[in-house]
């Protein structure tokens, strides 16, 4: 790994808009699904997935068949992970509230789950059961009654779907599963077809076509953010074990060649030791080619004068994952402004959070931790304001409201108040 | 107003994408600001606003001059409204939390304000002081240290800006104000220029170019939702005063010709009376032409069998504003799934919420109340997860985490755990 002073480094970030050709194709797929419905979904399954799809919806019997195909230890681990994730997300749940005023008015905020949420799950090797749990459980905890999964069909698996994905979905409270992928699945969730009712929100990772389709339907439905490449920043001092740091950097680097793994440290000794450890550990990794390219292209060790200076670098990077391996990791927590998930101390290796601890692994990438949050229960709820104004309140404040409305030239607004004051005046007289 | 059975009515909703030409212009303006910075802003001010802008930033002296230009009663009303808005939004504020586990691990969620937020305020007649309060105060309550307002310059006002807007901004905690509008202002907030540092989020209403520019920069920064035309639905039974209902429908209709005002009622008598009242009240309205066209094109009275059936219609419409004028309005509150703000009872006329009561008047339009919320403090905060895993926790759960990682083919993830188990094992041995 390159070692350089932090001041000499600038992270290049790119927002993905796709090419004009990609956008045209996505738009055409979406319009096709809007006009042709299920027929378009079947024809795209044939064209893009090479699969003839008869029933779009996965049956209860197929889900039961999937359970028979996964082993006990997988099921037990998934269930324990799901319990942890559920317990953490339960703590995020908020209640509706009322504020009772002295004049008899009541103001309030109502919290409600979305009615129907679509979860996109990629096909093939990028289909991760852990990702199904992380996307579906917050919706389940929010109380979303209809959680719909879509995933591209293949020829293998249980009726074209990896049985582990089906089991994870069932465990996480997914209520409907459809064999449809790509931009066409996003279109079906946004606009609905004969067999797939439209959803209110679409979440989950996907390829460039899925991302562009989500961007396109944003407004018709809500979407989660468009995920960029995965990132880790490790902030460490000379108390950190270089083998731990190297292993954690590599666990990020193996995701894909675009992933970035960065160490920020005031310790020249640690910098050197980690660089050597990365090389050593790389040698025996099954996904060595990917991890090596990721480390070479996007991995770097940034040296800083102090841990405090390191924190400033971290805030500029706004990483998806941040690990702090330092003598007293909590000492720096208050100063961290921008990070999706913060892992503190030697035992909080990032995979702990990817799979098991409970907090969500769907995190803001590409520097968006400046303004975005880990996937959470709020993402699956909506608020409504409540205003119950009393007679006393309108008598007391009516004139001021009318004055503000008239200042803005909105006379009908003022008159809606005036007509009440007049009638109440008559009632009083 | 037309009267028809609710079953015969379908609301057409359109997501605004703009024409190809409009998108091309917006993209070109944004790229120009990215490459030329302040010079581009000055040149666009000349071209689009017809104004020579020397200093982009409004000075403290200009803000003081604005105070001298507004009258006492306006200032008092704005301050009282701001207090109410602040008090309501304070109740939305959330704290960071920790969850201490039996094995010594600590999980948590940190809440932090965004650092820098941009507030777009339209120029000319569409510049509403109330809108400045409603957009800025939630950011102020969230604790955002830098709240930046941009607004297109004119030749009138205080140095080109309506003094009431400047005063509202100062009262609402806006920390910087710049004379720049249109897509170029959005570009400046997203990418920064020599005199305007980049923001993390952009909020506030604007014309089609502002909306398209916000859509374009989404991802570089966060944006609020793209506002559609304003809407009101009144759900009323025969206890409602037709004059109140008509006045409230018209207060929505006067906004613009695209605004929609809908009455849903089981009472044929109320339907007739409201239709007549709307005609009567329309006659003397200063904005009669706008309100009349809005009522004719987008106004409708929908008859239903019962209030319960009316609630189902409301949930389909998912209105921005909902008024319930019925014998016991709270009786229906639990069944309302989709509405931005809910006004209950005869005295809760919509302008009460537009100006004064405290809840936000920036609400989800165009049916997006299905998945979106009124502007609130959460929109100006971000969350980070915290994971502090204990030695005991990794010893207990390490094997399960490794199994899940290996199932997904991510060996480096498993090894990041394994290396810790091995070292701890050695330490123990």
From TrEMBL, chains A, B:
Binds 1 zinc ion per subunit. Its EC number is 1.1.1.23. It catalyses: L-histidinol + 2 NAD(+) + H2O = L-histidine + 2 NADH + 3 H(+). This is Histidinol dehydrogenase. The active site is at 320 (proton acceptor), 321 (proton acceptor). NCBIfam families: hisD. PROSITE patterns: HISOL_DEHYDROGENASE. The keyword Oxidoreductase applies. The gene is hisD. One of its GO terms (molecular function) is NAD binding.
């Amino acid at each position: 790994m390159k070692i350089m002073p932090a001041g000499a480094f600038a992270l290049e970030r790119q927002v993905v808009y796709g090419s004009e050709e990609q956008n045209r194709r996505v738009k055409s797929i979406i319009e096709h699904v809007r006009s042709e419905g299920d027929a378009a979904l079947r024809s795209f399954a044939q064209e893009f997935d090479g699969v003839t799809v008869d029933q779009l919806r996965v049956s209860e019997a197929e889900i039961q068949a999937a359970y028979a195909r996964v082993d006990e230890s997988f099921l037990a681990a998934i269930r324990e992970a799901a319990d942890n994730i559920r317990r953490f997300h339960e703590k995020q749940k908020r209640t509706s509230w009322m504020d009772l005023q002295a004049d008899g008015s009541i103001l309030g905020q109502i919290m409600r789950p979305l009615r129907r949420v679509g979860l996109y799950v990629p096909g093939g090797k990028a289909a991760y059961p852990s990702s199904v749990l992380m996307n579906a459980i917050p919706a389940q905890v929010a109380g979303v009654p209809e959680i719909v999964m879509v995933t591209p069909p293949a020829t293998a698996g249980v009726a074209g779907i990896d049985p582990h994905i089906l089991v994870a979905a069932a465990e996480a409270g997914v209520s409907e599963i459809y064999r449809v992928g790509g931009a066409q699945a996003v279109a079906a969730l946004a606009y609905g077809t004969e067999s797939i009712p439209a959803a209110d929100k679409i979440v989950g990772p996907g390829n460039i076509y899925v991302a562009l389709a989500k961007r396109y339907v944003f407004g018709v439905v809500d979407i989660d953010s468009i995920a960029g490449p995965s990132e880790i920043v490790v902030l460490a001092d000379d108390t950190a074990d270089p083998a731990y740091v190297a292993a954690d950097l590599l666990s990020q680097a193996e995701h894909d060649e675009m992933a970035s793994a960065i160490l920020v440290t005031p310790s020249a000794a640690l910098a050197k030791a980690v660089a050597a450890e990365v090389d050593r550990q790389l040698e025996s990794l099954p996904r060595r080619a990917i991890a090596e390219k990721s480390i070479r292209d996007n991995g770097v060790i940034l040296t800083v004068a102090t841990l405090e200076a390191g924190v400033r670098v971290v805030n500029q990077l706004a990483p998806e994952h941040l690990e702090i391996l330092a003598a007293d990791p909590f000492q720096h927590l208050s100063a961290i402004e921008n990070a999706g998930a913060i892992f503190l101390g030697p035992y909080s290796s990032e995979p702990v959070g990817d799979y098991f601890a409970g907090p969500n692994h769907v995190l803001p990438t590409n520097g968006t931790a400046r303004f975005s949050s880990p996937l959470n229960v709020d993402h699956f709820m909506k608020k409504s304001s409540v205003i119950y104004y009393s007679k006393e309140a309108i008598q007391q404040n009516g004139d001021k409201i009318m004055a503000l409305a008239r200042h803005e030239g909105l006379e009908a607004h003022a008159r809606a108040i005036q007509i009440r004051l007049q009638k109440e005046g008559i009632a009083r007289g």
